[in-house]
Amino acid sequence: MASMCLAIPGKVLKITGEKALVDFGGVRREVIISLVENVKPSDYVIVHTGYAIGVMDEKEAQETLRTWREVLKAGETE
What we know:
Elements: E1 8-16, E2 19-24, E3 27-32, E4 44-48, E5 51-56, H1 58-76
Antiparallel strand pairs: 1-2, 1-4, 2-3, 4-5
């Protein structure tokens, strides 16, 4: 059986050491950023289990978030 991992994009608001405050569409969480280099406030990072695993451009992040909203909305109607 295959398993699936989910990673969600979020916008970096503030960095303190190896942690960042990241906004996931209104939900803010502290995320460890030590796995990615050169992260700065206003960057979008892709997050899995509390760790930023990559930086993505804003356009790609917005497209991914739009797709997630559509998936969640479709699930509400089932």
